[in-house]
Amino acid sequence: MSLLKIRNLTVEFDTAAGPFRAVDSIDVEVSQREVLAIVGESGSGKSVSMLAVMGLLPDPATITADVMEYDGRDMLKMSDRERRKIIGREISMIFQEPISSLNPSFTCGYQVEEVLHRHLGLKGAAAHQRALELFEQVGIPEPERRLKSYPHQLSGGQCQRVMIAMAIACKPKLLIADEPTTALDVTIQKQILDLLMSLQEEYGMGLIMITHDMGVVAETADRVSVQYQGKKMEEADVLSLFENPKHPYTRALLAALPENATGDRLLTVSDGWEGMV
């Protein structure tokens, strides 16, 4: 059975120029222990579609779907209270730009302990001990000291590890990672990806990896969904997608990779897209 099943998801925003459709009738499905990569350029609706699932889009957004099920439960019929019991506990998300996602006014330890208190009822020494264990698990050096640190006192890679600790605090069944390696140097990127994959294996989570990096896709995914301007262009298992992409846009994404460059100039996605239609 699918852990998350979405059919015909559409998201629209009201703008001064009229309604803008950011996500246009897409399907998403992921099972336990499976890694689904959602890939595409910036503005293709990757993050918006998952924020819609999390219920984190602003009120002016209009969200419709024929099916939105989590673990066999109909999310479209859930009350706000029922959804809040799931979001953050059974479904968790690692957001882009960890430094801006963490609250600068509170210590990193406090922010992790808040998750533990809200969803698991842990308080005081019990919450502190669990937060310490999480910091150790995600590889934060001097974890006891870092619990007392504020986000600005940590590096970008350490802040990302704090975000991961918050996301896995309740051992979720489904983890959504939104560009988890953005703005990190190559060495730290590899460490973060290895950490996510080891946690996914340890907890048996379903993992949705949102990215524009085809290298990340090749390294982590079981299946790949390609989006462009809010629509799904193609979906395939990772090996089939790289060896035999069906859609012109997918071929354009792959042609724009540096290792596929020919001649004196790198192709852009637009070059490949326009040349393959």
TrEMBL record:
Gene3D superfamilies, A to Z? P-loop containing nucleotide triphosphate hydrolases
List each copy of the ABC transporter domain by range: 4-254
Highest taxon in the source lineage: Bacteria
A Pfam family that this protein carries is ABC_tran
On whether Transport is a keyword of this UniProt record, the answer is yes
Give the UniProt subcellular location, in the record's own words: Cell inner membrane
* GO biological process assignments: peptide transport; transmembrane transport
- Which GO CC annotations does the UniProt entry carry? plasma membrane
Report the InterPro entries cross-referenced here: AAA+_ATPase (IPR003593), ABC_Ni/Peptide_Import (IPR050388), ABC_transporter-like_ATP-bd (IPR003439), ABC_transporter-like_CS (IPR017871), Oligopep_ABC_C (IPR013563), P-loop_NTPase (IPR027417)
What main location does UniProt list?
membrane
Print the keywords alphabetically.
ATP-binding, Cell membrane, Membrane, Nucleotide-binding, Transport
Q: Quote one Gene Ontology molecular function term.
A: ATP binding
| UniProt topology in membrane | Peripheral membrane protein
Similarity section: Belongs to the ABC transporter superfamily.
Q: What is this protein called?
A: Peptide ABC transporter ATP-binding protein
